[in-house]
Amino acid sequence: MDTIAPRFARCEAARNAGAFVLGVLSSLETKNCWTMAELSGHATPDKLQHLLSRAKWDADDIRDDLRAMVVDAFAERDAVLVIDETGDLKKGDKTVGVQRQYSGTAGRIENCQVAVFLSYASSKGHALIDRALYLPKSWTDDRARCAEADVPDDVGFATKPELATTLIERALDAGVSAQWVTGDEVYGADPDLRKTLHDRQVGYVLAVRRDTVVPTDGGPMRVDALADMVSEAAWQTMSAGAGAKGDRLYSWAWLTTREDPGTGECSVLIRRNDDTGELAFYRCYSPHPVPLATLVRVAGRRWTVEECFQSSKGLTGLDQHQVRTWTSWHRWTILVMLAHAFLAVVTAAQRTREHPNPALIRLSVNEFRRLFVALVLTPLHAIGHRLLDWSVWRRKHQRRAQLCHQKRRSQPQ
Questions:
Q1: Could you tell me if residue 29 is inside a domain?
Q2: Alpha-carbon distance 396 to 389, whole Å?
Q3: What share of the chain has pLDDT > 70, as a percent?
Q4: Quick check: 299 and 180 in contact, CB under 8 A?
Protein backbone atom coordinates (compact mmCIF):
# COMPACT_ATOMS: atom_id res chain seq x y z
CA MET A 1 0.00 0.00 0.00
CA ASP A 2 2.97 2.33 0.56
CA THR A 3 3.92 1.67 -3.05
CA ILE A 4 0.57 2.60 -4.58
CA ALA A 5 -0.56 5.32 -2.13
CA PRO A 6 1.00 8.16 -4.22
CA ARG A 7 -1.26 7.14 -7.12
CA PHE A 8 -4.33 8.53 -5.34
CA ALA A 9 -5.24 12.21 -5.38
CA ARG A 10 -6.66 12.12 -1.84
CA CYS A 11 -5.55 10.29 1.27
CA GLU A 12 -9.15 9.11 1.85
CA ALA A 13 -9.07 7.22 -1.47
CA ALA A 14 -5.76 5.62 -0.51
CA ARG A 15 -7.21 4.48 2.83
CA ASN A 16 -10.27 3.08 1.09
CA ALA A 17 -8.01 1.22 -1.35
CA GLY A 18 -6.22 -0.27 1.66
CA ALA A 19 -9.53 -1.37 3.12
CA PHE A 20 -10.45 -2.90 -0.24
CA VAL A 21 -7.19 -4.86 -0.51
CA LEU A 22 -7.50 -6.14 3.07
CA GLY A 23 -11.08 -7.10 2.31
CA VAL A 24 -10.23 -9.25 -0.71
CA LEU A 25 -7.36 -10.83 1.25
CA SER A 26 -9.74 -11.75 4.08
CA SER A 27 -11.58 -15.03 4.56
CA LEU A 28 -14.96 -13.56 3.60
CA GLU A 29 -16.88 -16.11 1.54
CA THR A 30 -18.48 -13.40 -0.59
CA LYS A 31 -16.37 -10.37 -1.43
CA ASN A 32 -18.22 -7.25 -2.50
CA CYS A 33 -18.40 -3.63 -1.38
CA TRP A 34 -21.01 -4.45 1.26
CA THR A 35 -19.21 -7.31 2.96
CA MET A 36 -15.77 -5.69 2.78
CA ALA A 37 -17.05 -2.36 4.11
CA GLU A 38 -18.65 -4.12 7.06
CA LEU A 39 -15.39 -5.96 7.75
CA SER A 40 -13.46 -2.68 7.67
CA GLY A 41 -15.84 -0.93 10.07
CA HIS A 42 -17.37 1.43 7.51
CA ALA A 43 -20.94 2.47 8.24
CA THR A 44 -22.05 1.87 4.63
CA PRO A 45 -20.52 0.53 1.39
CA ASP A 46 -20.50 4.04 -0.10
CA LYS A 47 -16.75 4.62 0.38
CA LEU A 48 -15.73 1.47 -1.48
CA GLN A 49 -18.33 2.03 -4.20
CA HIS A 50 -17.02 5.59 -4.63
CA LEU A 51 -13.45 4.22 -4.85
CA LEU A 52 -14.41 1.97 -7.76
CA SER A 53 -16.60 4.40 -9.67
CA ARG A 54 -15.92 8.10 -9.04
CA ALA A 55 -12.70 8.63 -7.05
CA LYS A 56 -9.77 10.29 -8.87
CA TRP A 57 -7.14 7.64 -9.66
CA ASP A 58 -5.91 5.73 -12.69
CA ALA A 59 -5.98 1.92 -12.66
CA ASP A 60 -3.19 1.88 -15.27
CA ASP A 61 -0.83 3.48 -12.75
CA ILE A 62 -1.55 0.70 -10.26
CA ARG A 63 -1.01 -1.83 -13.07
CA ASP A 64 2.48 -0.45 -13.62
CA ASP A 65 3.24 -0.75 -9.89
CA LEU A 66 1.88 -4.29 -9.82
CA ARG A 67 3.95 -5.34 -12.82
CA ALA A 68 7.11 -3.86 -11.31
CA MET A 69 6.48 -5.65 -8.01
CA VAL A 70 5.99 -9.04 -9.67
CA VAL A 71 8.91 -8.72 -12.06
CA ASP A 72 11.26 -7.52 -9.32
CA ALA A 73 10.35 -10.57 -7.23
CA PHE A 74 10.35 -13.24 -9.96
CA ALA A 75 12.68 -11.83 -12.63
CA GLU A 76 14.69 -14.33 -14.66
CA ARG A 77 16.25 -13.90 -18.07
CA ASP A 78 14.30 -16.85 -19.50
CA ALA A 79 11.00 -16.03 -17.80
CA VAL A 80 7.74 -16.69 -19.69
CA LEU A 81 4.76 -14.45 -20.42
CA VAL A 82 1.63 -16.61 -20.31
CA ILE A 83 -1.54 -15.43 -22.04
CA ASP A 84 -5.03 -16.83 -21.47
CA GLU A 85 -8.64 -15.78 -21.06
CA THR A 86 -11.20 -16.59 -18.39
CA GLY A 87 -14.94 -16.06 -18.12
CA ASP A 88 -17.09 -14.91 -15.20
CA LEU A 89 -20.75 -15.97 -15.18
CA LYS A 90 -23.11 -12.99 -14.85
CA LYS A 91 -26.84 -12.36 -14.93
CA GLY A 92 -28.66 -9.78 -16.99
CA ASP A 93 -27.26 -7.71 -19.87
CA LYS A 94 -26.13 -4.45 -18.22
CA THR A 95 -22.67 -5.48 -16.98
CA VAL A 96 -20.03 -4.30 -19.43
CA GLY A 97 -19.03 -6.99 -21.96
CA VAL A 98 -21.69 -9.50 -20.93
CA GLN A 99 -23.43 -11.64 -23.52
CA ARG A 100 -24.06 -15.32 -24.20
CA GLN A 101 -20.66 -16.59 -25.30
CA TYR A 102 -18.31 -19.50 -24.76
CA SER A 103 -16.63 -19.61 -21.37
CA GLY A 104 -13.70 -21.95 -20.84
CA THR A 105 -14.36 -21.75 -17.10
CA ALA A 106 -17.87 -23.19 -17.56
CA GLY A 107 -16.92 -25.30 -20.58
CA ARG A 108 -20.00 -24.20 -22.50
CA ILE A 109 -21.89 -21.16 -23.82
CA GLU A 110 -23.17 -19.07 -20.91
CA ASN A 111 -24.19 -15.52 -20.14
CA CYS A 112 -20.77 -14.29 -19.09
CA GLN A 113 -18.04 -11.69 -19.23
CA VAL A 114 -14.68 -12.69 -20.77
CA ALA A 115 -11.29 -11.07 -20.22
CA VAL A 116 -7.75 -11.80 -21.42
CA PHE A 117 -5.02 -11.93 -18.76
CA LEU A 118 -1.23 -11.88 -18.89
CA SER A 119 0.86 -13.58 -16.23
CA TYR A 120 4.59 -13.57 -15.55
CA ALA A 121 6.12 -16.96 -14.71
CA SER A 122 9.61 -18.08 -13.74
CA SER A 123 11.12 -20.74 -11.52
CA LYS A 124 10.72 -18.31 -8.59
CA GLY A 125 6.94 -17.90 -8.90
CA HIS A 126 4.12 -16.52 -11.01
CA ALA A 127 1.36 -13.90 -10.85
CA LEU A 128 -1.01 -11.94 -13.09
CA ILE A 129 0.38 -8.62 -14.31
CA ASP A 130 -2.16 -7.24 -16.83
CA ARG A 131 -5.66 -7.73 -18.20
CA ALA A 132 -7.98 -6.58 -20.99
CA LEU A 133 -11.76 -6.87 -21.11
CA TYR A 134 -13.17 -8.49 -24.25
CA LEU A 135 -16.07 -6.55 -25.78
CA PRO A 136 -18.14 -8.56 -28.29
CA LYS A 137 -19.42 -6.87 -31.45
CA SER A 138 -22.90 -6.72 -29.91
CA TRP A 139 -21.38 -4.15 -27.57
CA THR A 140 -18.98 -2.24 -29.81
CA ASP A 141 -21.65 -1.86 -32.52
CA ASP A 142 -24.03 -0.29 -29.98
CA ARG A 143 -22.36 2.95 -28.90
CA ALA A 144 -25.34 3.99 -26.76
CA ARG A 145 -24.98 0.80 -24.76
CA CYS A 146 -21.23 1.38 -24.45
CA ALA A 147 -21.79 4.94 -23.25
CA GLU A 148 -24.19 3.69 -20.59
CA ALA A 149 -21.46 1.33 -19.35
CA ASP A 150 -18.79 4.09 -19.38
CA VAL A 151 -16.82 2.51 -22.27
CA PRO A 152 -14.47 5.11 -23.81
CA ASP A 153 -15.37 6.30 -27.30
CA ASP A 154 -12.05 5.13 -28.76
CA VAL A 155 -12.53 1.52 -27.65
CA GLY A 156 -13.60 -0.63 -30.60
CA PHE A 157 -13.86 -4.32 -31.30
CA ALA A 158 -10.70 -6.36 -30.81
CA THR A 159 -10.28 -10.12 -30.97
CA LYS A 160 -8.76 -11.99 -28.05
CA PRO A 161 -5.43 -12.47 -29.90
CA GLU A 162 -5.37 -8.73 -30.64
CA LEU A 163 -5.93 -8.00 -26.95
CA ALA A 164 -3.20 -10.49 -26.08
CA THR A 165 -0.79 -8.80 -28.50
CA THR A 166 -1.48 -5.45 -26.85
CA LEU A 167 -0.81 -6.87 -23.38
CA ILE A 168 2.43 -8.55 -24.48
CA GLU A 169 3.73 -5.47 -26.28
CA ARG A 170 2.89 -3.28 -23.31
CA ALA A 171 4.88 -5.55 -21.00
CA LEU A 172 7.86 -5.70 -23.36
CA ASP A 173 7.81 -1.93 -23.89
CA ALA A 174 7.96 -1.52 -20.10
CA GLY A 175 11.20 -3.54 -20.03
CA VAL A 176 9.81 -6.77 -18.59
CA SER A 177 12.51 -9.43 -18.54
CA ALA A 178 11.05 -12.32 -20.53
CA GLN A 179 12.29 -14.34 -23.50
CA TRP A 180 9.24 -16.51 -24.13
CA VAL A 181 5.49 -16.39 -24.64
CA THR A 182 3.08 -19.29 -24.35
CA GLY A 183 -0.67 -19.66 -24.71
CA ASP A 184 -3.46 -21.94 -25.88
CA GLU A 185 -4.91 -22.65 -29.33
CA VAL A 186 -6.76 -19.32 -29.61
CA TYR A 187 -3.43 -17.51 -29.68
CA GLY A 188 -1.37 -20.10 -31.55
CA ALA A 189 -3.73 -19.82 -34.52
CA ASP A 190 -3.24 -16.06 -34.93
CA PRO A 191 -0.56 -15.19 -37.54
CA ASP A 192 -0.40 -11.52 -36.51
CA LEU A 193 0.49 -12.41 -32.93
CA ARG A 194 3.20 -14.79 -34.12
CA LYS A 195 4.58 -12.16 -36.53
CA THR A 196 4.72 -9.59 -33.73
CA LEU A 197 6.78 -12.00 -31.63
CA HIS A 198 9.05 -12.76 -34.62
CA ASP A 199 9.64 -9.06 -35.20
CA ARG A 200 10.47 -8.48 -31.53
CA GLN A 201 12.73 -11.55 -31.37
CA VAL A 202 10.69 -13.14 -28.59
CA GLY A 203 10.40 -16.93 -28.61
CA TYR A 204 7.07 -18.70 -28.26
CA VAL A 205 5.52 -22.12 -27.68
CA LEU A 206 1.85 -21.71 -28.66
CA ALA A 207 -0.69 -24.54 -28.73
CA VAL A 208 -2.49 -25.20 -32.02
CA ARG A 209 -5.32 -27.45 -33.22
CA ARG A 210 -4.57 -30.83 -34.69
CA ASP A 211 -5.77 -29.72 -38.14
CA THR A 212 -3.27 -26.82 -38.31
CA VAL A 213 -1.29 -26.86 -41.58
CA VAL A 214 2.43 -26.02 -41.48
CA PRO A 215 5.07 -25.84 -44.28
CA THR A 216 7.49 -28.78 -44.41
CA ASP A 217 10.13 -30.15 -46.78
CA GLY A 218 7.39 -32.33 -48.27
CA GLY A 219 4.96 -29.43 -48.69
CA PRO A 220 2.15 -28.16 -46.46
CA MET A 221 1.01 -30.81 -43.96
CA ARG A 222 -1.34 -31.06 -41.00
CA VAL A 223 0.40 -31.39 -37.65
CA ASP A 224 -1.51 -34.58 -36.79
CA ALA A 225 -0.22 -36.11 -40.05
CA LEU A 226 3.31 -35.22 -38.95
CA ALA A 227 2.71 -37.08 -35.69
CA ASP A 228 1.82 -40.24 -37.64
CA MET A 229 5.20 -40.06 -39.37
CA VAL A 230 7.26 -39.87 -36.17
CA SER A 231 9.06 -43.11 -35.36
CA GLU A 232 8.84 -44.50 -31.84
CA ALA A 233 12.56 -43.93 -31.34
CA ALA A 234 12.10 -40.19 -31.95
CA TRP A 235 9.90 -39.70 -28.89
CA GLN A 236 11.68 -38.46 -25.75
CA THR A 237 10.22 -38.61 -22.24
CA MET A 238 10.57 -35.34 -20.32
CA SER A 239 8.85 -33.56 -17.46
CA ALA A 240 6.75 -30.48 -18.23
CA GLY A 241 7.11 -29.39 -14.60
CA ALA A 242 6.06 -30.50 -11.16
CA GLY A 243 2.37 -31.06 -10.49
CA ALA A 244 0.40 -31.92 -7.37
CA LYS A 245 1.12 -35.61 -7.92
CA GLY A 246 4.74 -35.26 -9.02
CA ASP A 247 6.44 -34.57 -12.34
CA ARG A 248 4.13 -34.20 -15.35
CA LEU A 249 5.85 -36.73 -17.59
CA TYR A 250 5.03 -36.87 -21.31
CA SER A 251 6.67 -38.11 -24.47
CA TRP A 252 7.74 -35.34 -26.86
CA ALA A 253 8.58 -35.20 -30.58
CA TRP A 254 10.16 -32.19 -32.25
CA LEU A 255 10.12 -31.40 -35.99
CA THR A 256 11.59 -28.44 -37.88
CA THR A 257 9.30 -26.58 -40.30
CA ARG A 258 10.14 -24.58 -43.44
CA GLU A 259 8.78 -21.22 -42.28
CA ASP A 260 10.93 -18.15 -42.84
CA PRO A 261 10.72 -15.97 -39.71
CA GLY A 262 13.60 -13.77 -40.90
CA THR A 263 15.95 -14.89 -38.16
CA GLY A 264 15.59 -17.78 -35.77
CA GLU A 265 14.09 -21.25 -36.01
CA CYS A 266 10.49 -22.44 -36.39
CA SER A 267 9.31 -25.91 -35.44
CA VAL A 268 6.40 -28.08 -34.31
CA LEU A 269 6.38 -29.68 -30.86
CA ILE A 270 4.16 -32.71 -30.23
CA ARG A 271 3.23 -33.91 -26.74
CA ARG A 272 1.94 -37.44 -26.12
CA ASN A 273 0.25 -38.70 -22.98
CA ASP A 274 1.59 -42.24 -22.77
CA ASP A 275 -1.32 -43.39 -20.57
CA THR A 276 -4.13 -42.25 -22.88
CA GLY A 277 -2.32 -41.70 -26.19
CA GLU A 278 -3.74 -38.17 -26.39
CA LEU A 279 -1.69 -35.74 -28.49
CA ALA A 280 -1.21 -31.99 -28.15
CA PHE A 281 0.52 -29.75 -30.72
CA TYR A 282 2.54 -26.53 -30.47
CA ARG A 283 4.00 -24.09 -32.98
CA CYS A 284 7.39 -22.91 -31.75
CA TYR A 285 9.83 -20.14 -32.56
CA SER A 286 13.17 -19.30 -31.01
CA PRO A 287 15.46 -16.43 -32.08
CA HIS A 288 18.47 -18.67 -31.35
CA PRO A 289 18.94 -22.44 -31.33
CA VAL A 290 17.66 -24.03 -28.11
CA PRO A 291 17.43 -27.65 -26.91
CA LEU A 292 14.18 -29.58 -26.74
CA ALA A 293 14.20 -29.33 -22.93
CA THR A 294 13.82 -25.54 -23.16
CA LEU A 295 10.69 -25.76 -25.33
CA VAL A 296 9.22 -28.40 -23.02
CA ARG A 297 9.84 -26.14 -20.02
CA VAL A 298 8.11 -23.22 -21.75
CA ALA A 299 5.14 -25.40 -22.72
CA GLY A 300 4.85 -26.52 -19.10
CA ARG A 301 4.69 -22.92 -17.87
CA ARG A 302 1.27 -22.52 -19.51
CA TRP A 303 -0.39 -24.26 -16.56
CA THR A 304 0.76 -21.50 -14.21
CA VAL A 305 -1.88 -19.09 -15.49
CA GLU A 306 -4.58 -21.63 -14.58
CA GLU A 307 -3.15 -21.70 -11.05
CA CYS A 308 -3.31 -17.89 -11.02
CA PHE A 309 -6.98 -17.94 -12.05
CA GLN A 310 -7.84 -20.59 -9.47
CA SER A 311 -6.13 -18.86 -6.56
CA SER A 312 -7.11 -15.29 -7.49
CA LYS A 313 -10.76 -16.31 -7.78
CA GLY A 314 -10.77 -18.63 -4.78
CA LEU A 315 -8.68 -16.49 -2.43
CA THR A 316 -9.11 -12.87 -3.51
CA GLY A 317 -12.46 -12.80 -5.33
CA LEU A 318 -11.39 -11.92 -8.87
CA ASP A 319 -14.73 -13.15 -10.24
CA GLN A 320 -16.98 -11.87 -7.42
CA HIS A 321 -17.29 -8.28 -8.56
CA GLN A 322 -20.74 -6.70 -8.73
CA VAL A 323 -19.73 -3.76 -10.90
CA ARG A 324 -21.25 -2.84 -14.23
CA THR A 325 -19.10 -0.14 -15.82
CA TRP A 326 -15.81 -0.16 -17.70
CA THR A 327 -14.02 1.98 -15.13
CA SER A 328 -15.23 -0.01 -12.13
CA TRP A 329 -14.28 -3.33 -13.74
CA HIS A 330 -10.72 -2.20 -14.44
CA ARG A 331 -10.35 -0.84 -10.92
CA TRP A 332 -11.75 -3.95 -9.26
CA THR A 333 -9.56 -6.33 -11.25
CA ILE A 334 -6.31 -4.40 -10.75
CA LEU A 335 -6.75 -4.13 -6.96
CA VAL A 336 -7.62 -7.84 -6.73
CA MET A 337 -4.59 -8.71 -8.89
CA LEU A 338 -2.45 -6.56 -6.58
CA ALA A 339 -3.72 -8.46 -3.52
CA HIS A 340 -3.09 -11.80 -5.24
CA ALA A 341 0.41 -10.73 -6.29
CA PHE A 342 1.14 -9.78 -2.67
CA LEU A 343 0.26 -13.35 -1.63
CA ALA A 344 2.37 -14.88 -4.41
CA VAL A 345 5.42 -12.66 -3.81
CA VAL A 346 5.49 -12.97 -0.02
CA THR A 347 4.85 -16.73 -0.16
CA ALA A 348 7.80 -17.14 -2.54
CA ALA A 349 10.00 -15.01 -0.26
CA GLN A 350 9.01 -17.07 2.78
CA ARG A 351 9.88 -20.30 0.96
CA THR A 352 13.45 -19.11 0.53
CA ARG A 353 13.73 -18.37 4.26
CA GLU A 354 12.42 -21.70 5.50
CA HIS A 355 14.83 -24.50 6.28
CA PRO A 356 14.12 -27.54 4.09
CA ASN A 357 12.02 -30.09 5.98
CA PRO A 358 11.35 -33.40 4.20
CA ALA A 359 8.35 -33.98 6.47
CA LEU A 360 6.54 -30.90 5.05
CA ILE A 361 5.39 -29.87 1.61
CA ARG A 362 6.52 -26.40 0.59
CA LEU A 363 4.50 -23.42 1.76
CA SER A 364 1.56 -22.74 -0.58
CA VAL A 365 -0.23 -19.48 -1.35
CA ASN A 366 -3.37 -20.96 0.25
CA GLU A 367 -1.54 -21.78 3.47
CA PHE A 368 0.17 -18.39 3.63
CA ARG A 369 -3.19 -16.61 3.17
CA ARG A 370 -4.63 -18.73 6.00
CA LEU A 371 -1.78 -17.70 8.32
CA PHE A 372 -2.03 -14.06 7.22
CA VAL A 373 -5.76 -13.95 7.99
CA ALA A 374 -5.34 -15.64 11.38
CA LEU A 375 -2.28 -13.72 12.57
CA VAL A 376 -2.77 -10.30 10.97
CA LEU A 377 -6.28 -9.60 9.70
CA THR A 378 -8.30 -11.16 12.52
CA PRO A 379 -6.61 -9.11 15.28
CA LEU A 380 -6.75 -6.03 13.04
CA HIS A 381 -10.50 -6.31 12.55
CA ALA A 382 -11.39 -7.60 16.01
CA ILE A 383 -12.28 -4.08 17.24
CA GLY A 384 -14.72 -1.61 15.74
CA HIS A 385 -17.26 -3.90 14.07
CA ARG A 386 -20.69 -2.33 13.91
CA LEU A 387 -22.72 -5.47 13.39
CA LEU A 388 -25.97 -4.10 14.79
CA ASP A 389 -25.66 -0.81 12.88
CA TRP A 390 -24.97 -2.73 9.70
CA SER A 391 -27.95 -5.00 10.27
CA VAL A 392 -30.23 -1.99 10.63
CA TRP A 393 -28.72 -0.25 7.58
CA ARG A 394 -28.98 -3.38 5.45
CA ARG A 395 -32.63 -3.96 6.39
CA LYS A 396 -33.47 -0.32 5.59
CA HIS A 397 -31.79 -0.65 2.20
CA GLN A 398 -33.65 -3.88 1.48
CA ARG A 399 -36.93 -2.26 2.51
CA ARG A 400 -36.36 0.65 0.11
CA ALA A 401 -35.59 -1.79 -2.68
CA GLN A 402 -38.74 -3.77 -1.85
CA LEU A 403 -40.94 -0.67 -1.93
CA CYS A 404 -39.45 0.49 -5.24
CA HIS A 405 -40.02 -2.94 -6.75
CA GLN A 406 -43.62 -3.05 -5.52
CA LYS A 407 -44.24 0.45 -6.85
CA ARG A 408 -43.03 -0.50 -10.33
CA ARG A 409 -45.15 -3.66 -10.31
CA SER A 410 -48.25 -1.71 -9.30
CA GLN A 411 -47.95 0.91 -12.05
CA PRO A 412 -50.13 0.31 -15.12
CA GLN A 413 -48.25 -0.86 -18.21
A1: no
A2: 11
A3: 95
A4: no
> Is 279 a member of any domain?
yes
φ/ψ (deg, to 5) at 30? -115, 125
318, 335 contact by CB (below 8 A): no
Query: What residues make up the domain containing 234?
Result: 186-300
Contacts of 235 (CB under 8 A, 6+ apart): 251, 252, 253, 272
Q: With contact defined as beta carbons under 8 Å apart, do 224 and 281 qualify?
A: yes
Do the Cβ atoms of 279 and 270 come closer than 8 Å? Answer: yes
Contact 135, 141 (CB under 8 A): no
Residue 290 above 90 pLDDT?
yes
C-alpha distances (whole Å) from 25 to each of 36, 80, 383 are: 10, 26, 18
> Residue 141 domain-assigned?
no
Inter-residue contact 326 to 147 (CB < 8 Å): no
Q: How many domains does the chain have?
A: 1
Q: Among 213-227, 296-310, 367-381, name the one with the lowest average pLDDT.
A: 367-381
pLDDT of residue 356: 78
Contacts for 24 with CB less than 8 Å, ≥ 6 apart: 31, 36, 316, 317, 335, 336, 339
Residues in CB range of 142: below 8 A, 6 or more apart: none
Report which residue type is found at 278.
Answer: E
Q: Are 108 and 89 in contact (CB under 8 A)?
A: no
The Cα–Cα gap between 329 and 74 comes to 27
pTM: 0.90
Q: Could you give the angle at the alpha carbon of 243 between the alpha carbons of 237 and 247, nearest 5°?
A: 30
Please report whether residue 266 resides in a domain: yes
Rounded CA-CA distance 33/46 in Å is 8
